[in-house]
Amino acid sequence: MASMVNDMLNDTGVNAVATAERHELPPSMVERMTLIMDSFGGPEIRLTLEDVAGRTNLPRSTTHRILEQLVRLRWLGRTGRVYGLGPRALGLGGREAGHGALRTAAFPLLHALSVRTEMVVHLAVLDGSDACYLDKFGGRAADHVPSVVGGRVPAHCTAVGKSILAWLSPELIDDMYRDGLPQRTASSIGDLDILHQELIRIRARSGLAFERGECFSQIACVGAAVRGLEGPVGGISLVGEVRAPLERLAPLVANTAQAIANKLIGDTARKQVPRAELSASTDGSQGPALGETLGRIVALGERGAWF
Questions:
Q1: Where are the alpha helices (DSSP H) in the chain?
Q2: In angstroms, what CA-CA distances link 262 with 37, 201, 256, 258, 307?
Q3: Does the reported pTM lie above 0.90?
Q4: In this structure, is the dihedral angle defined by the CA atoms of residues 41, 154, 125 and 47, taken in order, positive or negative?
Q5: What is the pLDDT of residues 109-120, one digit of tens each?
Q6: At what angle do helices 60-72 and 29-38 cross, to 10 degrees?
Q7: Does position 32 have pLDDT exceeding 50, yes or no?
Q8: Mean model confidence pLDDT for the chain
């Protein structure tokens, strides 16, 4: 009898050790990916690498590797340091839900901008290295601009895309364009160093971006990013003919983008990001006040010295 009990205890001990060892083994890749995807509870959830690692209890390096794989496969999207569900996870209806707050905040302001300027206005978000148009305003004039809601264009070829890229880290820009920069027209930026220089200039203008014939040969745009607490969440652009004097309208675009951001952030968070202290650099130092910068932009445009 004693020997049977000992055998049972031994068997139980072996099984317990085996079970413990199985629990200590790292989960399979599928399980890890499932853990990470489950950490995003809805289309509006935005998480950093640290957030995801904390929620899944996976090593930080493992989490980062899988997150980047999911971004490349478009199961997740990334803006700066923040991740969210991507197009493949959301589908068309989910994508609309994910950007619902941005579209709701932007709609009346962009409609007013379009009416005031009698020009076409875009709302877009960054999806990988593309700008994806969420909304387009402009009445009959919109028919003459070849962009479409839901359409995608290379972000570095558009003012709205460049305005968002300007607030991402140089390392992230390098990673996004490691395979080169596609060119839409002869005026498109095709060199990574030149793109970095352009993004520096945009930051120095407190985020205002311009393009003339870089995406569509007969179209010019001025754009500004809509910046949240964790980085850019989208951008807007005003569209005109390739020779349109967009510099004079740049303050309207900047003010509209800021107004959208204020609606998204709310009064409490707005105090943490004062409007007059938008940074013009990536090292955290304070740049020139937005009003002062816009004044210089308008002066340059009037002298014809912008380009």
A1: 2-24, 29-38, 49-56, 60-72, 87-98, 100-117, 159-165, 170-176, 192-204, 250-265, 267-270, 290-303
A2: 30, 24, 10, 6, 31
A3: no
A4: positive
A5: 999 999 999 999
A6: 80
A7: yes
A8: 78
Delimit the CATH 3.30.450.40 region(s) of the chain: 99-303
Phi, psi at 233, each rounded to 5°: -110, -10
Q: Minimal CA–CA distance to 155: which of 97, 90, 235, 70?
A: 235
Residue type for position 257: A
Where does the chain hold its CATH 1.10.10.10 domain(s)?
Answer: 2-90
Tell me the DSSP string of 66-80. HHHHHHHTTSEEEET
Where does residue 211 fall: left (phi above 0), alpha (psi -120 to 50 degrees), or beta otherwise? beta
Residues in the chain: 307
CA distance 80 to 193: 19
Chain segment 172-221, per-residue pLDDT in tens:
899 889 889 999 999 999 999 999 999 999 999 999 999 999 999 889 99
Q: Helix 49-56 and helix 60-72: axis angle, to 10°?
A: 120
Q: CATH number of the domain at 2-90, out of 3.80.30.20, 3.50.50.60, 2.40.50.100, 1.10.10.10?
A: 1.10.10.10
d(CA 163, CA 256): 14
Alpha-carbon span 216 to 10, nearest angstrom:
76
Q: In terms of pLDDT, which residue wins out, 6 or 284? A: 6
CA distance 129 to 171: 14
CATH topology of domain 99-303: Beta-Lactamase (3.30.450)
Instruction: Give me the residue label for tokens 């959830």.
Output: 45
What is the average pLDDT across 261-272?
A: 64
Q: How far is Cα of residue 90 from the mean position of the Cα atoms in its chain?
A: 16
